Amino acid sequence: MTSPLDARLATHLAEFRKDGVYKVLNHLDSPQAARVTMEGRGEIIILSSNNYLGLSNDPTVVKAGISGLEHYGAGTASVRFICGTYTIHRQLEAACARLVGTEAALSFVSCWNANEAVPATLLTDRDVVLSDQLNHASIIDAIRLAKSITKCTTGVFQHSDLTDLDRKLSDHREAEVKLVITDGIFSMEGSLANLPGLLDTCRRHGATLMVDDSHATGVLGATGRGTAEHFDLVGEIDIITSTLGKALGGAAGGFVAGSSNLCDYLTQRARPQLFSNALPPTVAASAHAAITTLEAHPERVTTLREQSTYFRNQLTAMGFSPLPGETPIIPVILGETAAAIRMSELLLDEGVFVTGFGYPVVPQGTARVRCQISAAHTRQDLDEALAAFGRAGRSLGLI
Ligand SMILES: Cc1ncc(COP(=O)(O)O)c(C=O)c1O
Q1: Residue to mutate, 243, 255, 327, 361, ligand 1, most ligand atoms under 8 Å from C-beta
Q2: How far is the CA of 393 from the centre of ligand 1 (A)?
Q3: Candidates 215, 230, 297, 377; catalytic one
Q4: Per-10-residue mean pLDDT for the chain, 399 residues long?
Q5: Do 43 and 36 meet the contact criterion of CB atoms below 8 Å apart?
Q6: Ligand 1 site, CB within 6 A
Q7: Catalytic residue at 187?
């Protein structure tokens, strides 16, 4: 007999299909690289991965993961404070802190977990947390959790609107701790937070600034140290969270970086630390190798920037309207959701994997295909992808 829950799920799944929002997973059988092998399609160019530096499949990173597995086995088999912590975790955390320019860092099994740990662990009912309107889902959920656990006050400021933030901080001038959270790069737009403005506003109000740099670590700044380096503010940001699941090898994992007191306190009290196993040593070792490779080869960041600028300029020259910006996230706005989905299907037929996003992920009328460039892409990869964009765009009457 079908349970009430199963019946409900089946109804919703049928609705998703009818509304055209059902997500079909494409099956890959090769590592993330400029080109991947997709079931039923063979080799295709991928423009929808966060493998910004091309490190996922880098031999040094892969070998380090294997050595980590051989040296430490599969994992800690418990949480760190109970059964001990590995040298590789300490090495990774020191490397994360060095990279983003903070005193200390603490690793988590994902940046989702890292974000979830911060407000719920640090805030109280005497505090307020204010979040940019376009912040990542993990920050939104982290704040919901913090509100329910700590009874802190919460608020949202208009996207990148310093006047609105200033007003809301003034409204909460009595709060003991004021925590302001922003993404470094906003992933659907590829746009940057106004870090100098945010920092100035926070300082005037005695607020703490937390930046989720998941899309910017390894990407922004001359040497890939993130949004802070881009704005010449390394060492100035109170709390940085980031992922190891994008530019830094792409496996999984995240970290919180900040003062030694912050990381020590989270070690003592953050529930995802206290009640969940550590990052697998395989992943810690490959992420550590990704960071040292980045430090030794900052030219990867330069390549990424040059390839991104090239792709953006060529798309514009062809008559598309990519959102302006200076990041490897290049969204091409197509209007209605159906247009974005159709474009992404046509591109896949042409051998190029780019995901289309529509409402409610992005506002009505701004559906888009979002291209993400990697330092692993060659000019030939990009030129082939651009030619496919041209054919698909012409057949849809977009250019
Ligand atoms: C801005 C941002 N924060 C956090 C996350 C979550 O990262 P993780 O995959 O490490 O949980 C993502 C991933 O999509 C992200 O884009």
Answers
A1: 243
A2: 31
A3: 215
A4: 95 91 91 97 97 98 98 94 95 98 98 98 98 97 98 98 98 98 96 98 98 98 98 98 98 98 98 96 98 98 98 96 94 90 94 91 90 98 98 92
A5: yes
A6: 110-112, 115, 136, 138, 183, 187, 212, 214-215, 243, 245, 254
A7: yes
| Catalytic entry in 56, 187, 242, 344 | 187
How far apart, in whole angstroms, are the C-alpha atoms of residue 134 and residue 159?
Answer: 6
CATH architecture under which domain 21-50+298-395 falls = Alpha-Beta Complex (3.90)
Instruction: Give the global pTM.
Output: 0.97
Which residue type, as a one-letter code, is found at position 319? Answer: G
Residue 285: its pLDDT value, please?
98
Give Cα separations from 36 to 87, 219, 242, 268, 369 (angstroms).
34, 22, 26, 42, 19
Q: Are 379 and 310 in contact (CB under 8 A)?
A: yes
Q: Which CATH architecture has domain 59-296?
A: 3-Layer(aba) Sandwich (3.40)
